[in-house]
Design a protein that fits this description.
Length: 480
């Protein structure tokens, strides 16, 4: 039977063992939403590279849309479970046989057995299950080093020197396929956002292995300590930049975590860094995939704080030039220029701003999917609806990831040069994150006061004398 492959199913775990393979380049899919230009590039480049590597075995069909192309193929097709419920429904509608995906370590059945009748899904519980299940960083039944979690070792503030000073990540070299993709995208006149730029992420298996190798050798030893920090002039810090090759199916999560474990056992990387990295790949990544299917489409409509503000155009269209808050401007510039910023910028800057300003969580979820090179429907709901916006009422996290300027001042180097003052909550120079923090608490006090992890914050709110001023100013704030 012919195998139908999607653009995020590019690795050998998908195509080996199949003799006849079809991929569809759908013009309608490229045009459907305002995707980041570099994301469009990666998708086309990845599919075209794979087709060029296996001529005769893999055929790339250019079509207006998937449905039309699948009907025209007019033969029995089999596909692996895709990365969105919409694509899954389409395959079933069109009579395509759907196989379980080989892209994740844990199967759907095993996840369901773990989830059982739970209503709250703590990542830490899932992560420990995964470590044991796949025997990663274990000594018998105990975690190596006697602890499951080295997060407390991994919260160093940013170094004063402005750069982390770790070896550079592996960068790809573009080839003639990339040149053709660029020319085709220019000609298509798509409703894209963000800037075009040199391709920054691995998109073939060979490149993915090189990127992984360089990360393990040069950067994994530094991964942990500054994981939660942000530096204006160091956009990659010690992060792996592996989300693109992982999410395009070019690396298997188990090969990645076993290789990281080997680095620890060979003495090439400290346990805190390796554990931190394993937690991301074997914990968080698997957790968000399984919960996407387990929680279903209703979860994506959750809006516990009734946040309905539309995304402003400077945000949606990635035009940060007028943004004065250095942290927010730097994060939006990163998205504009690379379609990627690291985790803390996504969570503590972009997500935090969106929460404070009451952006509609579903619209924000879509924005993350389309604006990030590693954004896919399955990866977003738990990260955006759950973690960052707490719109699910606490299914995922025990409290909202809300913070003011003091936190940003401690964990980033932005505030020193920022027009706003992180200590001020009123007046012209009131930091939008500091004032936004109190304004948000004030608006949602009744809802969060029962949460014991928010109690101190709520008590702090009651001690603020100029609350009326904060309230009035933040309601109408236009300058960020
Ligand atoms: C609001 C928000 C939006 C996000 N959007 C995406 C997204 O579109 N695509 C995406 O892959 N990740 C997303 N993440 C998770 C995380 O921020 C990125 O995976 C990471 O920044 C990618 O860079 P990296 O490869 O250098 O990661 P590293 O910091 O090196 O981490 C290693 C790997 O762990 C995995 N990982 C870590 N955290 C998560 C997580 N929370 N969810 C899923 N995988 C995780 C990724 O595969 C990543 O490559 C989001 C997080 C938040 C809070």
């Amino acid at each position: 039977m012919t195998l139908l492959l999607f653009g995020d199913q590019l690795g050998p775990q998908f195509h080996s063992g199949h003799d006849e393979i079809v991929m569809i380049e759908s013009a309608a899919a490229l045009r459907r939403k305002p995707y980041h230009r570099q994301k469009l590039h990666l998708v086309l480049s990845g599919m075209r590279h794979l087709a060029a590597e296996f001529p005769g075995r893999i055929t790339l069909v250019r079509a207006n849309g998937y449905r039309e192309a699948i009907r025209e193929l007019d033969r029995p097709l089999v596909a692996y479970q895709p990365g969105s419920a919409a694509a899954h429904r389409m395959l079933l509608d069109l009579g395509v046989e759907v196989l379980p995906t080989p892209a994740f370590a844990l199967s759907r059945e095993e996840f369901s057995a773990w989830a059982g009748t739970r209503e709250r899904f703590l990542m830490e519980d899932f992560y420990r299950y995964q470590r044991t299940r796949f025997d990663v960083l274990m000594e018998g039944e105990k975690p190596v080093g006697g602890r499951w979690n080295f997060d407390t070792d991994n919260r160093e503030p940013p170094p004063k020197r402005g750069l982390l000073g770790v070896p550079a990540p592996w960068w790809p070299e573009e080839d003639e396929i990339d040149a053709q993709v660029r020319a085709d995208l220019d000609a298509m006149d798509l409703p894209a956002v963000g800037r075009d730029g040199p391709r920054r992420f691995a998109i073939t298996r060979e490149e993915a292995l090189k990127a992984l190798g360089v990360f393990l050798r040069d950067r994994l030893p530094h991964f942990g300590p500054h994981e939660d920090a942000v530096l204006t002039k160091d956009w990659t810090m010690a992060h792996s930049l592996l989300s693109v090759p992982l999410n395009h199916g070019l690396l298997h999560p188990l090969e990645v975590v076993y290789a990281a474990e080997d680095a620890y056992r060979d003495g090439a990387a400290p346990l805190a860094s390796v554990e931190g990295f394993v937690r991301q790949v074997l914990g968080w990544r698997e957790y968000v995939w399984h919960l996407y299917w387990h929680l279903g489409p209703e979860y994506q409509r959750r809006n516990g704080f009734r946040a309905t503000a539309a995304l402003p155009s400077w945000w949606a269209e990635l035009r940060p030039a007028t943004v004065r808050a250095a942290c927010l401007r730097t994060a939006l510039e990163g998205v504009r220029d690379h379609g990627w910023v690291h985790h803390i910028q996504r969570l503590m800057v972009l997500g935090n701003h969106a929460l404070q300003r009451g952006y509609d969580p579903a619209a924000l979820n879509d924005w993350f999917v389309t604006s990030f090179v590693d954004g896919f429907p399955w990866v977003m709901p738990v990260n955006v609806i759950g973690m960052s916006q707490h719109a699910d009422g606490g299914v995922i996290a025990t409290k909202p990831y809300l913070s003011g300027g003091a936190y940003l001042n401690r964990m980033t180097d932005h505030c020193a040069t920022c027009w706003f003052d992180p200590k001020r909550r009123t007046g012209e120079r009131a930091c939008p994150f500091t004032a936004g923090y109190w304004a948000w608490l004030d608006r949602h006090e009744a809802q969060v006061s029962g949460n014991h992890r928010m109690r101190r914050a709520v008590q702090g709110l009651r001690r603020i004398s100029e609350l009326d001023e904060v309230r009035a100013r933040e309601r109408d704030r236009e300058i960020f």
